[in-house]
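Researcher: We're teaching a course module on how sequence relates to structure. For the next exercise, students receive a sequence and then see the predicted structure as tokens, so they can try to spot secondary structure elements on their own. Here is the exercise chain.
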Amino acid sequence: MAPARNETTGIPSGDRWQSLSVVCQGGLDLSVDALTQGVAFPGSARVLQNFEPALEGGYKRIQGYIKWDSAVVPGAANAPVLAVKPALGGVLAVRKRDGVDDNALYFSSGSGWGSVLNTTARPGSVTKARIIEYSITAPVTILTDGVNPAGKWDGTTYTHINGTGAPANPHFAEMFLARLVLSGYSANTSAISISAPNQDTNFTAGSGAIEINVGDVVVGIKSFRAELYIFCKNSIFKLIGETIDNFQVVPVARSIGCVSGDSVQEIGGDLVFLAPDGIRSVAGTANIGDVELGLLSKKIQPIVRQFVGSYSAISYSSTVIRQKSQYRLFIYDSSGLKAEALGILGKLESKDGGGIGFSWATTRGIQPYSAGSTYVNNDEIVAIGDPINGYVYRLERGNDFDGTNIYHIYQSPQLVFDDPKLRKVLQKATVYTQVDGTATTYLQALLDFENPNVLQPEPIELAQDGALSAYGSAVYGTDVYGAVTYPIFMKNLVGSGFTCAFQYADTNGNPPIRIDSFIIEYGLKGRR
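Model: And here is the predicted structure for the students to work with:
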């Protein structure tokens, strides 16, 4: 039986307080109006900055980054790290040498970058370089920069790939069916050049090498499910077949292109890339030649539009964090501050009603010029190269951005508590969290769309003192030992309004805090 209501106010009689439970899920959503979002998707976010949709559920502040090597990659002052790639047991990086016309390749296992690896100079005005790793008989890497011939490094020997038939200055490289594919070269910007089988330095036609023209400017290539996807400026193709006798170029999309090949990543059995209208996927199906293009970024289109149209292709970099099923897309804006640098974070997860999709968030304060990752023996290394200072950083390490605190914000939609025309008096918040040690954030109620004519309550600190100490470095009797905890914060609230959003924000270098869910207790007053 429904509770009796006051005939004048319409407010249920009985208990003085009511409660609203909010489960944090769904990620950033800017695709619906505020009232609809507050009613239908209360656990989604209007702001989700430096928080990530967590594997455990809820929203968790992201980890920071630390220097991969305490030394800078040798190079000219203010020269960017043109390429970075974890490979061959360490990290490879490319930077313009100081006083020498050479875009030099270096290697570091974490204790110094050593000497230049390329025994043949790589001169010229290189704006972006790229490194891939693969294995035919042993692990090797290929370096391309759009100015010089491709370079091969196997951990011991450097080889300039400039023999008969080899492209003079490819931008992109990929391994496909034990053949090295090079593309984006000035002699034919619409072509891909495919080496002889099992011979990654042999591009002579007599040995089985071939060049294929796709009729559009190639901006990136990616091998996926025994097919080679060719991303172009205004279209997408894929190469199928096993030999030059049955190779076929099949159109995937004639009216959708790729903004930057550096946005292309494989994640969750799919390819993700930045198109002119947003972040899309190329979903392969069981039927040969049958693909589906899907727009993934509908919920964050206002943010994605900031990424498209105002920047050149070399401004973009991306990576995946496999252990978290995450895709991250960054942009380098030379006119902007690192602290304001915007990035997009997508977490692949199951959705209500079946299927999988992305929950989105943003990053702020991470500004790489280049990025790369690898996953070997359960160890994932995600590296980014700085645009100015010469350092290579490792993501997903530490609790700050190399000494700079992480400013994190999660803001819920405007919640209407079932009726936007009834005034609510806030009473109490119960917040369910997870912390990995000492953690703090501040909870603030934002009333009536932050109306300046409404008195807004002050932020309330949520603090947990549970610092962790490391075995081998802690001092017995001095350091504090702790563990991952799941504190429940119960805080009294003040303020009244018709709608209310709840914001969790702070700037600190503490371990991450995860906001799992929260309950708001409130009282009802009269109608407007």
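Model: If you want an answer key for the exercise: Helices lie at 34-40, 301-307. The radius of gyration is 26 Å.
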